[in-house]
Amino acid sequence: MNTPEFEVLLSEAEIKKRVAELGAEISNHYSQDKSRHIVVIGVLKGSFIFLADLVRRLTIECEIEFIEVASYGAGTKSSGQIKLLRDIAVPLEDEDVLVVEDIVDTGHTLYYLLEHLQRSHRPRSVAICALLDKPSRRLRDIKAQFVGFTIEDRFVVGYGLDYNNRFREKKDIVVYKES
Ligand code: 5GP
Question: How many domains does the chain have?
Fold first, then answer.
């Protein structure tokens, strides 16, 4: 196996600060209507660390659910083929849903997920919160309402993001290069 090389793109401290800001933005947005609580849907597996930090920064009540899709095969290129591995098992009708994703790249995954949620679960509203956004690679008309960081076209790992299921445990978000 080749030796991987990492270059820190976003440090643990930078991520922590931005996640706190996002928590405040989201809470502020939804607390306009005092009766509201939201259903936060984490997209497995990449979002699990981000989601865990984000929900602890919310000042509104939330329910937490997970959905799992396979979008990338092995490697760093999107296949464009999305497969639903695990669906939501609770009713979402009349709920305000916030989909929490690690990164929006081509947009195929979120396009598929939004379509699936609207068609099969009919929530009252759906918004997207993505930790990272790579707009230069977009192939679908997808826009996240809440974005942590906009980044260039680099393949990153850490803070939940993987390369072939490795490196999710890294505290920083790092650019991955195989030497
Ligand atoms: P999209 O369907 O928008 O092309 O890609 C979304 C999914 O691709 C993300 O949830 C993530 O799993 C994966 N992905 C896209 N870019 C990166 C990246 O730079 N690093 C990692 N680790 N995964 C990525």
Answer: 1
* Whether pLDDT at 129 is above 70: yes
pLDDT, tens digit (0-9, with 9 covering 90-100), for 29-86: 999 876 679 999 999 999 999 999 999 999 999 999 999 998 755 556 666 789 999 9
CA distance 100 to 43: 6
Residues framing ligand 1 (Cβ under 6 A): 46, 71-72, 78, 101-109, 155-157, 161-163
CATH number at 77 reads 3.40.50.2020
Contact 91, 71 (CB under 8 A): no
Q: Ligand 1 pocket test: which of 9, 45, 103, 153 has the largest number of ligand atoms within 8 Å of its C-beta?
A: 103
With pLDDT > 70 as the criterion, what percentage of the chain qualifies?
93
Closest residue by Cα to atom 17, ligand 1, is 155
Distance CA 178, CA 168 (A): 16
Domain that holds residue 41: 4-178
